[in-house]
Amino acid sequence: MSPFIKIYKKNKIIILAALISISVGFLIIFIGMTLYRNRLTDLGAEDNLKYRTFKYHYALISEETDAPFWEAIYDGALDKGKEMDIYVERIGASLPSAYSLEDLMKIAIASKVDGIIIEPNGTEEITKLINYADEEGIPVITVLNDEPNSKRKSFVGVNSYNQGQIYGRQVLEVVKEGKKNVTVLLNSDSNNPGMNVIDSGIREMVAGNGVQVNSVYVNTQTTFSSEEDIRNIIKDNQNPTEVLVCLTAIDTRCAYQAVVDYNKVGVIDIIGYYDSDLILSAIQKDIIHSTMTIDAKQMGSYCVEALNEYMQTKQVSDYFSVDIYAINNSNIEDYIKEQSENEND
Questions:
Q1: What is the model's pTM?
Q2: Rounded to an integer, what is the distance from CA 28 to the centroid of its chain?
Q3: Are 129 and 183 found together in one domain?
Q4: 227-238 per-position pLDDT tens digit
Q5: Is the residue at 286 inside a domain?
């Protein structure tokens, strides 16, 4: 074969390989551009949602940012906000680090929101921040715990005294079984007036029935610190408790887990708070005697309604009351059925 023919064939193969490489390169570039264009389209759609305008922007603030109870309050506020063209933001939720209630309040004020919904912790600084927000033209609604000496516009919650009475009636049901030593778990912040009123209501209801009520302050800085304090109470064999009264959803969950872990089921009765699936299941299993519950979504809805009423008229009722009631073995099946029917409506 002529050397020229060999060179020609070799060059032909090189040229063909080059053409294939170029074609593959163009195909990769085309696919990449298509994917990039689609991504830009998706980002554009997200941006359209992100920059949607609302009539008002409200902030919801609490120390128990990730508690199921507060999830329900936020859901109620968010749903009501959507009805009224209002955006409700939960300040502090899912942040990489924990912020104090005071810091969260400062963030909300600095963000120039149109209204603030907050569960105050009874500190003087929070009272000052509520007043400062009001001076900045940001109305504040307190929820669950009130701060009547501040410039808040309204309070949405339950009557703490009545709540204590309902707790007390549940304690008396347990007392019929012969148990007398009762421990009430209070927030470590002794400035919380609502819990102190609940405690007084319990004591008044059980007075004269031979019941010994011991109030213990639980460290609520983190879920782990609360859990540790509750476990220490349950493990105490020197002064053993027979009835544990929990005033928060987190304490109820921690008490339930500790009673199971230390084989105290049937030895210690729990009277809890909130109606999570875990708590309702524990009532059905006779691990928790009963639980107090309110319509958390209704509470969130009332908060938004109160703020919106003030924004529209500059006037609003001083107090919005949400009912509280007990769930126990006698009514739990009816309660679960009713909740299921409401969800399906």
A1: 0.70
A2: 48
A3: no
A4: 899 999 999 988
A5: no
What is the span of the domain harbouring residue 232?
Answer: 160-273
Strand order in the sheet with 115-118: 86-90, 56-61, 115-118, 140-143, 154-157, 319-321
Shared-domain flag, residues 67 and 81: yes
Which pairs with CB-CB distance under 8 Å and at least 24 residues apart come from 143-152?
Answer: 143/62, 143/73, 143/117, 143/118, 143/119, 143/299, 143/303, 144/62, 144/119, 144/194, 144/299, 145/119, 145/120, 145/121, 145/192, 145/193, 145/194, 146/120, 146/193, 146/194, 147/120, 147/122, 150/120, 150/126
Distance CA 310, CA 39 (A): 43
Q: 308 in a domain, yes or no?
A: yes
Query: For residue range 291-336, what is the model confidence (pLDDT) as tens digits?
Result: 999 889 999 999 999 999 999 999 999 999 998 989 999 999 999 9
Look at residue 282 and give its three-state secondary structure: helix
Residues 188 and 232 in one domain: yes
Q: How far apart are CA 54 and CA 310, in angstroms?
A: 17
Residue 47: inside a domain, yes or no? yes
How many domains does the structure of the chain reveal? Answer: 3
Q: Is 145 among the domain residues?
A: yes
- CATH number for the domain harbouring residue 129: 3.40.50.2300
Residue 341's pLDDT is what? 76
